[in-house]
Every structure is written in structure tokens, then in C-alpha cells.
Amino acid sequence: MILGAAGLLPLILALFIRLAAGADPDSPLPGMIGGLALAYAAMILSFLGGIWWGIASARASATEQPRLLVIAVVPSILALLLYGLSADFPVACSTLLGLVIALTPLVDRGLAAKALVPGWWMNLRLPLSLALGALTIGLGFALV
């Protein structure tokens, strides 16, 4: 849980820098840090898809595996699309990215119901996904 919570630090730091930079709106630093933070959130979403791929590959039955592998590819596609459009539509893209991240525990809940993940999995995934989702949405509004 400590390592997972440490993964929230880039978004927390980016929000702090963005909000603290209100005194100097001409500074390029908040925008640059915000862009990096959105890229980080997109990478985390893509990483989750990789975790799901690994779980499906290693633990799913032959009948479950194809559906889970398709689901596992979706996060990377959404992450690329939303991050790619974020320069033109920062609030919309960060909001959608944050919502997608916040909804990822729904897939994890299905994996847990099929006993494909450890018993502690949801205790880690749910709070981290909700926190990262909320921070990502907040960052988008702070970048405007």
C-alpha cells in the first residue's frame, strides 16, 4: 500500500505546483509539469492493462482468456487517445482519463470474483484507483 500510495505523488506534486504557480501565470513550469502528470496517469492506465494481460495469460481458463485479453488491451488504447488529445482538450481528456482510471476496479472486481488475483488485491486497487482518478480530474481543471 505504501508503494502504491507513493505512485500518487507525481499527481499530488503537479497539482501543488499548478496551484502554487497562480502567482506567476506566465511561468511555463505548471503546464509542463501538468503535461507530464497527465502522461503519468495515462501510463498507469496502460500499465493496468498490462497487469490484466499478465493475469489473463497466467491464470485465466481457456474459455475466459480471450475476453480478458481483449479487455486488457483497452486501457492502452484509451490512454493513448486521451493523452494525445489532452493538449487541445485538457479538461475533457483529463476528466475522461480520471473516470476511466476510477472505473478500472470494476474489471479487478471481476478478476477477484474468479479468484484470479490475491485476496488483498481489491484493498489496494480500489483506493488507489479512486484517488488517482480524482487527482487526474482535478489536474485537468487546474491546467485551465
Jot down its keywords.
single chain, 144 residues, mainly alpha, 0% strand
Describe it for me?
- This protein has 144 residues and is mostly helical.
- It has one domain (2-142).
- It contains seven helices and no strands.
- It has helices at 2-6, 9-20, 29-59, 65-85, 90-103, 105-113, 121-142.
- Helix 3 (29-59) runs parallel beside helix 5 (90-103) and helix 3 (29-59) runs antiparallel to helix 7 (121-142).
- This is DUF3429 domain-containing protein.
- Keywords: Membrane, Transmembrane, Transmembrane helix.
- It comes from Sphingomonas abietis.
- The chain crosses the membrane at residues 32-56, 68-85, 124-143.
- It holds the Pfam family DUF3429.
List the helices and strands and how they pair.
Blueprint (H helix, E strand, L loop, with lengths): L1 H5 L2 H12 L8 H31 L5 H21 L4 H14 L1 H9 L7 H22 L2
Helix pairs in contact: 2-3, 2-7, 3-4, 3-5, 3-7, 4-5, 5-7, 6-7
* Computed structural class: mainly alpha
Give the fraction of residues assigned to helices: over 70%
Mean pLDDT: 92
| Radius of gyration of CA atoms, rounded to a whole number | 16 Å
Distance between the amino and carboxyl termini = 32 Å
**Count of spatially separate domains:** 1
Biggest sheet record:
none
Shape: elongated
SSE string: HHHHHHH
Task: Please report the number of helical segments.
Answer: 7
Uncertain spans: none
Transmembrane segments: 32-56, 68-85, 124-143
Pfam families: DUF3429
InterPro entries: DUF3429
Keywords: Membrane, Transmembrane, Transmembrane helix
